[in-house]
Specification:
The protein has 233 residues and is mostly beta strands. The protein has two helices and 16 strands. The protein has helices spanning 6-10, 16-21; strands at residues 30-35, 40-44, 53-61, 70-75, 79-83, 89-93, 98-102, 111-119, 124-129, 132-137, 149-152, 163-172, 194-198, 207-209, 216-220, 223-226.
């Protein structure tokens, strides 16, 4: 077990000088820390998107950072889960930006779980924050060819970038949540409906592997940090 460094003690706010002073290899639970562009992680794929899906992630946003767009995870032409310049958490479907939103910010230094669901049978999109249904819409649809990569913690513009820590990215091929739900108390486990699952516990290196074994995340500039989910670990 390595000795804790100052960044561990102070928590996963983005103090780059301290992070760089830590050991390069993290033992135990880990996550990725982002400090805005160009920090980015990408998942290359040639898969077609599931007809219905759920995308979810744990995050802790840096309250001292400001940027117009704070992307969590996005698959261009399919979905975008992010916080926008109006400090609203949004889950957008396709290119027409129809979807669900909530009128509050999560850049508060606290741990949050965010999930978006899309039902391809009727175009219903729902947004959940910490297990609570906070927004929904109907008639959303994604059309056209999906991008060949999923972006994690970054956006298509240089002004877009997440500041904080992201962990436990899961995309499922079903609508997992339809109403308020109890937050998980452990890491997500792979089941028959898990399409992609990144625990992000590698703690070192420039790649991370999906628990499903068929996707890889390539990490650029983002830093590995020790990160306990606490009650949700």
């Amino acid at each position: 077990m390595r000795a804790p460094c100052a960044a561990d003690i102070l928590g996963p706010m983005l103090l780059l000088a301290l992070l760089q002073a830590c050991d390069s290899a993290i033992e135990g639970p880990a996550a990725l820390a982002f400090d805005g562009a160009p920090d980015c992680a990408t998942i290359d794929l040639d898969d077609a998107p599931p007809a219905s899906f759920t995308v979810e992630v744990w995050l802790r946003g840096d309250p001292d950072a400001f940027v117009a767009m704070r992307p969590y995870v996005a698959w261009r032409h399919v979905f975008n889960l992010m916080e926008n310049g109006d400090e609203q958490v949004v889950f957008l479907i396709g290119d027409d930006e129809a979807g669900a939103s909530s009128p509050f910010s999560l850049m508060d230094g606290q741990l949050h779980h965010v999930a978006g669901t899309y039902d391809g049978t009727d175009g219903t999109a729902k947004l959940f924050v910490d297990g609570a249904l906070v927004g929904q819409s109907s008639g959303a649809a994604f059309v056209g060819d999906p991008d060949t990569r999923i972006q994690f913690g970054c956006g298509k513009e240089a002004t877009e970038g997440f500041y904080g820590v992201l962990d436990e990215l899961r995309i499922s091929s079903v609508v997992r949540y339809t109403d308020d739900f109890e937050l998980p108390t452990g890491q997500h486990t792979k089941d028959a409906d898990t399409w992609m699952l990144f625990h992000l516990d590698e703690g070192t290196g420039s790649t991370a592997s999906s628990a499903t074994g068929d996707h890889e995340m390539v990490i650029a500039d983002a830093a590995w940090v020790s990160f306990e989910l606490g009650g949700a670990e």
